[in-house]
Design brief:
single chain, 274 residues, mainly alpha, two-stranded antiparallel ribbon, 7 helices
């Protein structure tokens, strides 16, 4: 019974997933998730992102150290193989010399051959020659294999060295790029700070404008007071400018017109006689 229920649930779930896929809901979901991820990423401060990438670049050092260990092991293996190849080559040269010596001795047709003060029969030497020649060919094949393996290992080690150098250079380039980005970000932040201070400059300008307006109004009021004082609209009596009497006025006029009272009287009498 339980197995049937589980089987039914699996069918329903599979059908539901198929419907979601066919209806395009999965596409909507993935698109929405992508948008949310991008939005969240944009909200991460750039300073944090730079610090994060710097940390990741620093993690390249442990990876390089792991490669150091691998390359070191390979270097030791190559050195050991080089020694084996050197020894094998020397042995082959010695075997070759011995084989050629026995071959030449057998070619003489002698029935007894002497080596290191001891006599050996021709058949005995021929048997040893056969055995040594077979061994020589096997050793020669092994030497070729070792030489091929040594060449492959040396090329592999050189490739690993180049990869390490490349990783080192790329790490340095990444560090330079990070430093450049950090400097550029500081410049941007400084510009943003200056823009904030720009608002303070506007406030300062408004304060200056207000002071100028107050100064202008104060000057206007001063001028107004002077005008009121000059034209007597404020009720003050200008004692120093009191009106002249008739005699003072007549004398001032005659003086200005060069007219004397005597000449004026003569003219008046002549007019009466007429």
């Amino acid at each position: 019974m339980i197995c049937k229920k589980l089987g039914l649930a699996a069918v329903v779930l599979g059908t539901g997933l198929a419907v979601v896929h066919l209806s395009g809901l999965s596409s909507y979901t993935s698109t929405a998730f992508s948008k949310v991820s991008k939005t969240v990423k944009r909200q991460v401060p750039l300073e944090f992102e730079i610090e994060r990438i710097r940390h990741e670049v620093e993690q390249l050092i442990p990876d390089m150290k792991k490669n150091f260990s691998v390359i070191a092991e390979e270097m030791v293996a190559v050195e050991n193989l080089q020694k084996e190849v050197t020894v094998t080559r020397a042995n082959l040269r010695q075997q070759k010399d011995n084989i050629l010596t026995m071959t030449k001795d057998l070619e003489t047709g002698a029935t007894t051959l002497v080596y290191d003060g001891r006599p050996y029969g021709a058949e005995q030497v021929r048997g040893k020659l056969t055995k040594d020649f077979a061994s020589y060919k096997i050793c020669e094949a092994e030497l070729r294999s070792k030489e091929q393996l040594l060449d492959a290992k040396e090329r592999s080690m050189e490739t690993a060295r180049e990869q390490l150098n490349s990783m080192k250079q790329q790490k340095q380039e990444l560090e330079i790029q990070i430093a450049e980005l950090e400097a550029e970000l500081k410049t941007v932040r400084l510009a943003q700070t200056r823009n904030k201070f720009h608002f303070d400059d506007s406030q300062l300008a408004r304060c200056k404008a207000t002071l100028a307006e107050i100064r202008t109004r104060l000057n206007v009021e001063k001028k107004t007071g002077e005008l009121e004082a000059n034209f007597g609209v404020n009720g003050d009596i200008p004692v120093e400018k009191k009106a002249k009497n008739s005699e003072e006025l007549i004398n001032e006029i005659r003086t200005h017109l060069n007219d004397s009272p005597r000449a004026n009287g003569k003219v008046v009498a002549e007019k009466h006689n007429d």
